[in-house]
What we know:
Order of helices and strands: HHHHH
Oligomer: single chain
Shape: globular
Radius of gyration: 15 Å
Amino acid sequence: MKRAVQWLRNAWRKPGRAQQVGFSYRAVFETPEGRAVLLDLAKYCNVATTSFVAGDPHQTALNEGRRDTFNHIAEMLGLTPADFPEIVKEQDA
């Protein structure tokens, strides 16, 4: 089972709520405005770069937290890391 599906089932136990939340992610991010926000988040969360900052484990942890948040959103949308190069290309367009 995908992590996103498992997350929804564990987080939203009320019948139908997990499905509604999953649908809401798609409804929000599949609009042109949502896509613009997704691209901005990809950039802010450093999807195309490493989280590691030499000599600063706190910044590394912060960066990794950002990346994890983006990865969660991407997974909720059914995106995979194979889709990220296209997202990065869209950022630069």
